[in-house]
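RESIDUES AND SHAPES:
===
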Amino acid sequence: MNYKGIARLGFLTLSLVMAHGMSAQDVVPTEQNVIDEVIWVVGDEAILKSDVETMRLQAAQEGTKWNGDPDCVIPEQLAVQKLFLNQAELDSIEVSESDIASEAERRLEFWIENAGSREKLEEYRKASISQIRDELRDAIRNMMIVQRTREHLVSDIKVSPAEVRRYFKDMPLDSLPYVPTEVEVQILTLTPRIEQEEINRVKDELRDFTDRINKGESTFSTLARFYSEDPGSARRGGEMDFISKVALDPAFANVAFNLTDPTKISKVVESEFGFHIIQLIEKRGDKIKCRHILKKPVVSEEAVNKALMRLDSIRADIMEGAPFEAAVSFFSDDKDTRNNYGLMANVTEDARTSKFRMQDLPAEVARVVDTMSIGQVSAPFQMINARGKTVCAIVKLKNRVEGHKATINEDFQILKDVVLNKRREDYIKDWVNKKIKSTYVRISDRYKNCEFEHQGWIR
């Protein structure tokens, strides 16, 4: 079983038994009155027929294919989830509500896009957006807890260089992992100047929103849904989940955390993302829950052209011998790369590196870099940065390593990760098998002819 695949599926279990305050033993289906049916029991947790159908429905929504008979694969995946959730309780593993909320919104937006509209998704799922969101949050909470539990279980597993070499020593060339093309890119960006009149227009619009709210002509939530340019929170009426000060833009955080009255609207505040007004919902310890409306000033075509012309001049100097790195230090507006000679950083959950696969670069950068040779400096181009702002840039291709079969000398870290992941997956499979043996399991008779990934379910 691919446990990473399980995490991607999201584990959309509805927990109907718990919702009705019943234990697994309390639900006894009869031919006369079948509301739902307990098909598996793992420990003191029930898996319902509706849980399986919900997971099957989500898989269809996301285009996921099952490796085997879904009627057997899905219940087993849900049963394995129960084992991990039980272990999470024993190990006191938790996840933050803000992480759950952001992932739920990302997944919900994906579903809406696939369905074609909010209304079509509601019709397909036979539930309101609010109900779908609540189900998603519960599912994603479980998904994240399972992932954290897996990470906790394998956190002490390490592999030595000698183990890596032994593993790949006699492996045929065609069995070695393929390393896709990787590049290192330096970037110099200029932010087009926004006219003061445009800034004033945005501020006046936000002040007008504040007046309409204070006069009772509209609510903050309604205006956020219609006008906020933060797509994630706009759908929720501008509402952000509980979040700490350090996770927010400093200017935004300073204003938000100084709010004390939920009936008051903040002054207009400028952040890296644009201009906002903020309304407090609740403070809880060192976290805050608030609403906001974001408006972004429109960059004029004239301002973009001026920035592109300035970059063209800078590029001309570089072509005549001026160091790209010095130009970055002197001219670049990108604080994330300016102090690193323009070198872009690829930050993942596992590591921080300067190497990018093409698909991991911003789309505009990848399109430019694709045809460049090492040392070449691009012509100026326009792009949207990670903060959603229009910027103009030139890039230099520092290095490119073409796709190839991994070798122990050049790609040791990649091969080490292969061995480490194999060790961890083997450990998890062994852990699941042992956990099954020590856990009470009851399975409906019709599942006893299934070919399961793990042994021990049928007793």
